[in-house]
Design goal:
CATH topology of the largest domain: TIM Barrel
Order of helices and strands: EEEHHHHEHEEHEHEHEHEHEHEHEEHEE
Number of helices: 13
Largest sheet: 10 strands, mixed
Shape: globular
Radius of gyration: 21 Å
Strand content: 15-25%
CATH architecture of the largest domain: Alpha-Beta Barrel
Helix content: 25-40%
Structural class: alpha/beta
Length: 403
């Protein structure tokens, strides 16, 4: 099965997505997600100008060889742009291989290791009371695990908290907007949020929280220790992810489970964290960690060290990525949980898919391949709109901080 053509489709049905479509001489097509939030066109150019010309004529079945051809062959390895482009090719090739076999993708990854995939939802509110109400609403929809974020008194805009009635979308402006931050206010407020949630909802619901890399190691240790009575499922991105020693310090002070990895691009980013058991969940995702081939390699390595998976699954990843992730989630032995933010109706119309939500779990479906397609005519009606992620500045002196 030879690759005869490949094209990059950029569209914005509510937010920007980059999709790679590979065509073959057998009439089959495969799709891969290449979306990199706030830097979409960099990946689109990398694919169009540098990768697609190298694909024509290659054997679509040689997935592993093509992965290394694009990784080693570029010399300039790693990084989010390169790895997102490689991921798009890899995911499209797995889609093709499964379609050629007439099987859902998970069957080619070893078959199902479970009956369904546990997912968690996002709850947020302008204050604690509104967040509690949103958690209760999501629980009524069947979610068994919910990430809770709340506005903080004295801070204008807080990560994960939507403005008005619209779903939260971080890429909110055509140039980076500036948010303010105060660690002390956040550290005082967050334990109160989870105290209220446990008082209202009891102990059975899984509760998660995302710090979004904003604390120093000792601050993160203090917060994790303060939250121990509320038994979090995990604390996500407690500190910037570059330094494994930071997680070692947090580990010495708390038993709150730690999760990190949505910004990781290769196994080398998380190798030390995993083999030293400094995290409990690795959050790498299909599109930013080099596709199914490389992400499975990361997850297999994690399994050797009793680290489970918790793949990133926000709406800045297209349904193509979600479909691929769910097939991998169903197959791997050390699955933990999958993030789930429903896409807009416009996005779902552009990307028809076989996966579905049922009572707190997802099913990838039985369609051949990863089960996600694209309506190109409809996608063309939603042209790209420039959108940046925000930046953060400290309230007291205006210093740029981790967003």
């Amino acid at each position: 099965m030879k690759i005869t053509a490949a094209k990059v489709i950029v569209c914005c049905p509510g937010r920007n997505f980059v999709t790679l479509k590979i065509e073959t001489d057998e009439g089959l097509t495969g799709l891969g997600d290449a979306t990199l939030n706030g830097r979409e066109l960099a990946v689109a150019s990398y694919l169009t100008d540098h990768v697609v010309p190298c694909l024509i004529g290659r054997d679509a079945h040689r997935i592993e060889d093509t992965w290394h051809y694009l990784y080693r062959g570029a010399y300039w390895r790693r990084g989010p742009v390169t790895m997102s482009a490689i991921a798009a090719v890899d995911t499209a090739l797995w889609d093709l291989k499964a379609k050629a076999a007439g099987l859902p993708l998970y069957q080619l990854l070893g078959g199902a290791s479970r009956e369904r995939v546990l997912v968690y939802a996002h709850a947020n509110g302008r204050d604690i009371a509104q967040t509690v109400d949103e958690v209760k609403r999501l629980k009524s929809l069947g979610y068994r695990a919910i990430r809770a974020q709340s506005g903080v008194p004295g801070i204008g805009k807080v990560y994960g908290v939507a403005s008005g009635d619209k779903p939260y979308e971080p890429a909110d402006a055509s140039l980076p907007s500036e948010h303010d931050w105060d660690t002390a206010k956040y550290l005082r407020h967050t334990p109160r949020l989870f105290e209220a949630l446990r008082a209202e909802l009891g102990d059975e619901l899984h509760l998660l929280h995302d710090v979004h890399h904003r604390l120093t190691p000792i601050e993160a240790a203090r917060l994790c220790k303060d939250l121990e009575p509320y038994r979090l499922f995990w604390m996500e991105d407690a500190v910037p992810a570059e330094d494994p020693a930071a997680f070692e310090l947090i580990r010495r002070h708390t038993t709150t489970p730690l999760a990190v990895g949505e910004v990781f691009n290769t196994i080398w980013d998380c190798k030390a964290l995993i083999e030293r058991q400094l995290i409990d969940y690795v959050r790498c995702t299909v599109v930013h960690a080099g596709g199914i081939t490389h992400l499975k390699r990361i997850f297999d390595f994690a399994a050797l060290h009793q680290v489970r998976t918790g793949s990133h699954g926000a709406t800045d990843l297209s349904p193509v990525c979600m479909g691929a992730a769910l097939h991998l989630d169903l197959a791997i032995p050390n699955f933990g949980i999958q993030e789930h933010m429903p896409h807009t109706a416009e996005t779902d119309a552009v990307f028809p898919h076989a996966y579905r939500f049922e009572g707190g779990f997802m099913q990838p479906g039985e369609a051949p391949g990863h089960g996600v397609t694209i309506d190109e005519a409809l996608a063309a009606r939603y042209p790209y709109r420039r959108a940046y992620l925000p930046v953060n500045r400290l309230q007291h002196d205006g210093s740029l901080w981790h967003w």
